[in-house]
Amino acid sequence: MKQRRLIAAGALFAAGALALSACSSDSGSGSGEGSTDANASITIYSTKPQNPLVPGNTNEVGGGNILDAIFRGLVDYDPDTAAPEMSMAESIESTDNKTWTIKLKAGQTFQDGTPVDADSFINAWNWTAYGPNAALNNYFFASFDGYADMNTTDPDDDGPKKAPEPKAKELTGLKKVSDTEFTATLAEAQSFFPTMVGYTAFYPLPKAFFDDPEAYGKKPVANGPFQITAGDGDTGFTLTAWSGYKGEDKPKIAEAVFKTYTSDQAGYSDVLAGNLDFMNQVPAANLVDDQYQTDRPDHFVNKAVGVIQTTTLPQYDDNYKDNPDIGKALSLAIDRDTITKNIFNGGRTPATGWVSPIVDGYKADACGEFCTYDPAKAKEYLAKSKFKGPFTYSFNNDGPGNKEAAEAICNSIKTALEVECTAKPYADFATLRADVTAHKMDSLWRTGWQMDYPHIQNFLEPLYATGAGSNDGLFSSAQFDDLIKKANAAEGEEAYADYQAAEKVLAEKMTIIPLWYQAQQSVWSDRLSNVKVTPKSTLDLTSVTAS
Amino acid sequence: MGRYIARRLLLMIPVLIGTTFLIYAMAWAVPGDPFASRCGQRPCPEAFVQAETERLHLDQPLPVQYGHFLLNMVQGDFGTTFSGDTVLEAVSKAFPITVKLTVVAILFELILGIGIGTIAALRRGGYLDGFFLFTSLVAISFPSFVIGYVLQYLLGVKAGLFSVTVAAGAPWGDLILPGFVLASLSLAYVLRLTRASMLETLQADHVRTAIAKGLPKSMILRKHVLRNSLIPVITYIGADVGALLGGAIVTEGVFNIQGIGGLIFHALRIRENGTVVGVTTLVVLVILFVNLLVDLLYARLDPRIRYE
Predict the structure, then answer these.
(1) What is the signed CA dihedral for A242, A247, A250, A254, rounded to 10 degrees?
(2) How far is A162 from chain B (nearest CA, A)?
(3) ipTM above 0.85, yes or no
(4) What CA–CA distance (Å, rounded) separates B116 from B131?
(5) Coil, helix or strand for A208?
(6) pLDDT tier at A15 (50, 70, 90 boundaries)?
(7) 3-state DSSP call for residue A364?
(8) Which of residues 227-266 of A touch B (CB under 8 A)?
């Protein structure tokens, strides 16, 4: 779960519906100094980018945060509500949710002066979607017309033979109308398309990238409010406000320095000593007893993000296949309240469904009675089920709190159901994933999801639709698939009702057990005011001011 | 002497091949899908897996893979990191910083370790001797990250005497505290080793003779005691260079120093095996050369030692 597979969303739901201890971060009066300096330079905690800085090839926070600061896509997300707002696009419209007409604002340019036109989007998207370029965000284009012809599969699965050269180099679904207009045709209706295209994978690329991708990856030329003026991944990047930026969200600081840290503890020490201005996630050790709130009074925020933790039951294993009673028994046996309090110090909230409360369309209590701790009922369901345990709960040992949570879950199951449960550690995420993708799991294991874009669909279809990319437990329900398809084609409230109905199917089958929603705890220095944390879990660089 | 050095240099070749093969085999023997951690929750796109498999020759047997690696290494190509830098570039940025940190640590060992060790030996049984023996015991028994965090918090965050983390480019001033933390364990050993070795030499016949001859005290100390006592200490410090390079992972993490330790740690975490192997190979080379240097230093300290 270290990778970014996500965009998180707004704080409103967090503060209201969830009653998390959300500190008022927008007042900016914490320091009381009030004076702001337009020439200020601020420092931000960062980690070393794992890949070249190319939007289509960046899927983790170290590189993603920098790209999000220097690039602007078709839409941008409101830092408070996570709602998509037009950025490079003038409008994104469709009559059937399948063919989208995208009109661009005129006069936008990249930082080297070349125009942000239809070609800069079409070429960038084609590059990412073309299989042989091996871009990490390739799968985001799977819903576009013509994707299959650009991506071929290896005939003998990693064997000596190579995959044949793809038939096409361009998506048939992308058509240029004029310099400021193009259309995107999808294989199936997707009403959430305008929300989706704000993700990093959909940023445009200038001609400079195609001339020399390698050099570009080290110092990208972008089109956003900031530009990279110095630095590298080892020490960090210096981002200077770009005077040519025509968007409304112009920065109120002159410079943002992303400092590379190898340990979050060192970053936290720097915040305490006043050497670092912003850190987006407090280290686990400093969450104990809300220590960060004492360390940085009035200079912290605790807000829900689009991350959910779950437990998956393998549907390819005979013990768990077509056996909803066992899932219900286990879910009823997990004491979420106590575990989130004792192990995560309230940094997580018990889940009542499969969708994060921060996205539109979220409905509380999708899981119903099955997500409340009830040992008596748990035993009833276990008696009804055809498998009686014992259980093992597999987890990756490299994530903070994973071990403690796994042991607590097992203890809870043991106490409630009076059956054996063993917490089984894997050395790291990669080792666990190897067994998961090979479908070798024979009991429960830890799963989690960070959203790509703030939409309810992103919490359902990629995870639980039949054959979907991240459907690790091989869950399959024709009813679920139909509802999702229907929802994707519908709009607004009607679509949400269908997504929620699909979520209800998950509660009936109970092959994935919701555990808890995650929150983010950020701290900052006395110098900063107007601090907002964006839906992508980063500091909103265009609204922050510094003295 | 020249023949001795040539022989030692030639001997390095089999040692280097042996160690790199072991490192290479171990790095790739780590279980798990090498691409799993690169694409988050989703399996990596097939085209990506194919491209990487081919680039790293993962579809071929281990000896063939290693052959490719060795061939490239001989030509000075240590591979490429995921972010597109060559490993040599990455190392050439990180290595000078780690060397600086190691130099600071060694200076602490030499000056404080030998200095205090000498004083303790001369005041054997006194209060000062007891105090130093006790503090060195504390330094030995605490893990270095505890010492690091405590000193960072007390002297850096609270007192503001030292910088909390090391700035880009690692200026010497910023390295004092981390250098001391890195040296702390070895410093304690050097101190105790110097003290023990000095006490032994102080009892030696030639020292008694020197005293009987009425030589000035400082000269006895310098020429007859220290020089003879330093051989085991130098051996220890020489061997320690390798340990410091490796142990720097912890210290570099605490003080956010972008050196070799951080480079290896980052590469291990994201399973950038090519970088791990490349960097460790270079570290092995450095250790081999330092050991050669130490062996050559013996002759300076003790003329009875000859190389043939």
Answers:
(1) 0
(2) 8
(3) no
(4) 11
(5) helix
(6) very low
(7) coil
(8) 232-236, 260-263, 265-266
